[in-house]
Amino acid sequence: MADSVVMALPLAAITSNLQALSPAEQHRASEIHHQQRRHAFLASRTVLRQWLSQVTGQPANRLTLGTGPHGKPFLVEAPTLHFNLSHGGDWLMIALSDRHAVGIDIEPIQPRQRLTQLCRRYLSENEAQSVLNLSFDQATTQFLRYWTCKEAYVKGLGVGLTIPLNTVDLTLPPNVHSIEPQGIASAQGLEPGWQLYQWQPTPGYAAALALKVSA
User: Which residues of the chain form beta strands (DSSP E)?
Assistant: First the structure.
């Protein structure tokens, strides 16, 4: 397996397989009554377990998925195999690495209520200013570029939103619509060894990947 691999799939293209899930996951799915949310859960767990099964050679429904103190998943049978998943809107993304801790996030680019308040709460002063100086549509896109980077980072750390995101200050690549991951050249406030990448994997979506590339 390559050091790090990212998969992006439209949820509508995924056929759920209950037999690939654990009994606990099957029970959890039965309690989700909202059809779209239920499919998102089933689809994401199906793809994740099938992928982990291919990598480990173990049956998908026999794999044991644990969670850290703040909900980051890990594979009990192979704790050094790193993975993370995110679904936003109609898309699913999964990152897998046999060397690096990873975090992934994808978000649909849609208007956000109280954008000014969100900027003040989650962005650094420089980042917030760069967003609020733009037109509304551009500001929404720029905010979500920052947000996905920071969300991927805290998911990679496995600490949830327990750290103040406005202490992380990023300089984003200028190509807003890049379909290829672009490295974040300047990132202040990250723990040592982390690298961030940001891109638009499909029109109307922002995505980011966080990798711990060194100790």
Answer: 4-10, 65-67, 73-75, 82-88, 91-97, 102-108, 169-171, 182-183, 186-188, 194-199, 205-212
